[in-house]
Amino acid sequence: MSTHADTHAHDDDHGHHHKETFVTKYIFSQDHKMIAKQYLITGTIMGVIGVIMSLMFRMQIAWPEEPNVIFEALLGKWAPDGVMDADIYLALVTIHGTIMVFFVLTAGLSGTFSNLLIPLQIGARDMASGFLNMVSYWLFFLSSVIMVISLFVEAGPAAAGWTIYPPLSALPMAQGGSGMGMTLWLVSMAIFIASSLLGSLNYIVTVINLRTKGMSMTRLPLTIWAFFITAVIGVISFPVLLSAALLLIMDRSFGTSFFLSDIFIQGEVLHYQGGSPVLFEHLFWFLGHPEVYIVILPAMGLVSEIMASNSRKPIFGYRAMIASILAIAFLSTIVWGHHMFISGMNPFLGSVFTFTTLLIAIPSAVKAFNWITTIWKGNLQLNPAMLFSIGFVSTFITGGLTGIILGDSALDINVHDTYFVIAHFHLVMGISALYGMFAGIYHWYPKMFGRMLNKNLGYLHFWVTAVCAYGVFFPMHFIGMAGLPRRYYTNSNFPLFDDLANVNVIITIFALVGGVFQLVYLYNFFSSMFFGKKTVQNPWKSTTLEWTAPVKHIHGNWEGEIPHVYRWSYDYSKPGYEEDFVPQNVPLREGEEELQH
Amino acid sequence: MTAFLTIIIVLFVAVAIWQMVKIFDLAQVNTDESNTGVATDYDNKINAYLMIGFLIFIYVITIVCFVKWGDLPLMSNSASAHGPEIDNLMIISMVIIFIVQTITQFLLHYFAFKYRGEKGEKALFYADNNTLEAIWTIIPVIVLAGLIIYGLFTWTSIMNINEDDDPMVIELYAQQFNWKARYSGQDNVLGMANVRLIDLDRANILGLDEADPNAQDDVITTELHLVVGRPVHFKMRSQDVLHSAYMPHFRAQMNCVPGMVTEFGFTPTVTTEQMRATPEMVEKVQRINKIRVEKSEALVAKGESALDPYTFDYLLLCNKICGKSHYNMQMKIIVETQEEFDAWMKEQKEFKNSLN
Q1: I need a surface site. Which of A57, A69, A348, A593 has the fewest CB within 10 A?
Q2: For residue A98, what pLDDT is reported?
Q3: How far apart are the C-alpha atoms of B356 and B352, rounded to whole Å?
Q4: Sorted alphabetically, which PANTHER family does this protein's record hold (chain A) (predicted)?
């Protein structure tokens, strides 16, 4: 595993092949392209687990009284005679959230594409530290394994919601899942954070130091800008979650009172005195909110790149796009309180957070309008990647707009923690980020595996997913506005909500269809790896540097010298050129303006 | 055994779908020579039309949702003095969202249709326009400034509990998995309390300080009765984990946090009787009862007992995940006239008389 601990990618000598064994090539690889694939496959497996969980609890919500053989089969003792246990329902909700947010949309998305694209698009032989990169992946793998193991503990996995608010998460007597299950959750997340930090530091250092000659910051593709800023946000906010997790471990195992005070449970007074659960909420959301931008910014970067390439047009407002990424990143760190309007914190603070939160709508609007203008008068190549990108903009707008309701403290009072919130964040960061990820996979699959995905299966996958995503999450706004709280195992104890039961059935049917159709994608993904059509070097006729590298993966990316860069990455349909794209490594002609704004 | 069979069946279904996809996959090889994975003019055309279809789908699902479920009693039937303020702000926000959503989705999908790629065409090289950027920066700024200012005024007026109105002070007390209400009695001051003083043997279930004179006339109940038109000042406690006191009809919600007291205040304006008599509520209750009758028939057929018919009551729900029975942590709220309230209150035991 240490055969090439000296792989400092910027040394030109390393353009050559190393003698590699199976283990160093496929398992303990330090090559960013292989690590990207490892992230993608691990993320995919975790995604399958997360989606199956969501389908199970959706079936529970739709048909609460009816025994379900699938529950009996998959949940075992947690579903005696096929009737789901209320504790495992909460556990499913909790682990679904954790897996999707962290393991799929953070590690799976950012881990895959930052690793794949940063060195290739900036013209570097590899990451700044291949070794740290490898460690980062294996820590992620370890945390995934621990998270999966936690599903099998005796008293059940963590079940306090993915936000694990204490005291519920701190007291095993409050909930079965707060025992060993929560311990494993915390350990898994602590390792995950370490992995994420190693990854992020590596991305930052690589982008700053290893850009090829001519690749100024304002010539970078927007993907790289997005990954770079994402990594910066991660480095700023993840350590705060780590400290929250450590303090929670202290409270749980060593009797400290950081988050607990004055508790009487199951007939006895606990010794905790002086702590505050609200402190935990602050620490959690100081990461938790930037986290949603950690999820969505890479997707935005991928979509910007794919839209420009497939519109055969420069991205509209390149500098405005960078500025809005920076603005979103800055604002993302000062809005966490909008998750806590009714937590008992001072209402004046609520006012401040309403103000900062609604400001985020401005850079977001700029981005949406810029994407729409990018496709205006383009020559759109409606590949599956492009469809997912357009779908991304659509769900981002639909989901983002309801943010002005939830971000408004006065309105949040009545829709806080209802299905309205579920609808909002699933559309704006769940589905959107997933679309960004799919778009990226369809677009860069040839770069990763040297083969093309089947396009028609891609179309089928997109259209069914697109319809089902709206079918699932759009009606949720309405049951939320009718006051239906989230995380209810069944609503049948509230006759008030009886007339919403049929909506829940419709939602679940859409979810099941959408979930099953992901098999089309999985088939396409795994079979194309071996039987897909072999790709040419630059199938989408893109301008960025990764398409100047050979199809065959070599450690060091380019045979011979690294290409130099002479122009920005969006010279599509530039007047004066025969072809409708001019790669970044083509020198400017005499008298040609760089035309970059 | 059933479990095993189910797994087998689910597996078979998955394999079947997989195989069907594979057939679909293989069937294309000969028909489509140019299947390189890159979109052809034909693909562009088909998908462009599907984009328009999808735009229509979005509009249809929006309209269907609004028509079928948009008539939400919770959007127009608030039962508190500040409720209409929230509802107005909500409606204004919804109108803005609706307009922006309709326009931007149209532009996005229409452009995707109109500018579908064709071989030999060339896109317009159009990289930047500062005027446009300025326009779509400034318009959101103006709209949001309005929303922010309106929102903050509403928020401040709701969260400011005015002590001059002589609000009735009530404690909401949360525990896994039920609610208690503690009325402050004649003096309108709650007695001191801490969970460390809980003494179940003496039936001091909320941990009141038995020596505190203010505590003597406190009244602990399992139903929340409020007087119409009389401001209420809620002080909230929790004894174990986080809970959230959610009273949707009153547009009120606040978390209950162990170790601290949180507050919320509102004035109920519609009695339970009045609310039951409103045409919207009559219709809703009829609709619900129809559903319950249908469900009951199925239950009776299975030999179980039928469901009770539903009559409307205001509710206090728990809206913060709090453990296994979170889904059933509720308390009935009754809004009534002063006389009815006084009569009810007379039947309740004062704290000093309730101890064992």
Answers
A1: A593
A2: 96
A3: 9
A4: CYTOCHROME C OXIDASE SUBUNIT 1 (PTHR10422)
Contacts of A76 in chain B (CB under 8 A): 3
Substitution target in B36, B68, B136, B308 with the highest count of A β-carbons within 10 Å is: B136
Give percent above pLDDT 70 in chain B: 94
pLDDT score, position A590: 84
pLDDT tens across A335-377, in order? 999 999 999 999 999 999 999 999 999 999 999 999 999 999 9
Burial call A470-506: b when 16+ CB within 10 Å, e when fewer: bbbbbbbbbbbbbbbbbbbbbbbbbbbbbbbbebbee
Q: Are A507 and A57 in contact (CB under 8 A)?
A: no
Measured between alpha carbons, how far is B94 from B88 in angstroms, rounded to an integer?
10
Residues 221-240, chain A, touching B (beta carbon < 8 A): none
Nearest residue in B to A498, CA atom: B288
Q: Do B21 and A519 touch (CB under 8 A)?
A: yes
Using alpha carbons only, how large is chain A's radius of gyration in Å?
Answer: 24
Q: Nearest Cα to A506, choosing from A473, A484, A466?
A: A473
How far is C-alpha A517 from the geometric centre of its chain's CA atoms? 21
Whole-number mean pLDDT of chain A? 91
Helices (H), A63-124: 69-75, 86-98, 112-122
Is residue A280 packed enough to be buried (19+ CB in 10 Å), middle (13-18) or exposed (0-12)? buried
What percent of chain A clears pLDDT 70, i.e. is strictly above it? 96
Task: Report yes or no: A576 at the B interface, CB cutoff 8 Å.
Answer: no
Predicted-complex ipTM score? 0.92
A contacts of B310 (beta carbons < 8 Å) = 495-496, 498
**3-state DSSP of chain B:** CHHHHHHHHHHHHHHHHHHHHHHHHHHHHHHCCCCCCCCCHHHHHHHHHHHHHHHHHHHHHHHHHHHHHCCCHHHHCCCECCHHHHHHHHHHHHHHHHHHHHHHHHHHHHHHHHCECCCCCCCCCCCCCHHHHHHHHHHHHHHHHHHHHHHHHHHHHHHCCCHHHCCEEEEEEEECCEEEEEECCCCCCCCCECHHHCEHHHCECCCECCCCHHHCCCEEECCEEEECCCCEEEEEEECCCCEEEEEHHHCEEEEECCCCCEEEEECECCCHHHHHHCHHHHHHHHHHHHHHHHHHHHHHHCCCCCCCCCCCCEEEEECCCCCCCHHHCEEEEEEECHHHHHHHHHHCCEHHHHCC
CA distance A485 to A161: 14
Q: How far is CA B26 from CA A28, A453, A460, A531, in A?
A: 36, 13, 15, 11
Residue B73 sits at φ, ψ, to 5 deg, of -55, -25
A525 touches chain B (CB under 8 A): no
Using DSSP's 3-state secondary structure scheme, residue A38 falls into: helix
- At residue B206 the predicted structure's pLDDT band, cuts being 50, 70 and 90, is very high
Domains of chain A: 2-13+24-262+270-548 (1.20.210.10)
Q: Which of helix, strand or coil describes residue A6? A: coil
pLDDT of residue B71: 65
Mutate to test the interface with A, among B160, B327, B328, B331 (most CBs of A within 10 A): B327
CB under 8 A, 24+ apart: contacts of B91-96: B92/B147, B92/B150, B93/A404, B93/A405, B93/A408, B93/A411, B93/B147, B94/A405, B96/A404, B96/B143, B96/B147
Per-residue confidence at B28, pLDDT binned at 50, 70, 90? low
Look at the block and give the residue holding tokens 């980062």: A136
The nearest CA of chain B is from the CA of A545 a distance in Å of 20
Token pair for B300: 């009776």
Residue B32 CA to residue B44 CA, distance in Å, equals 15
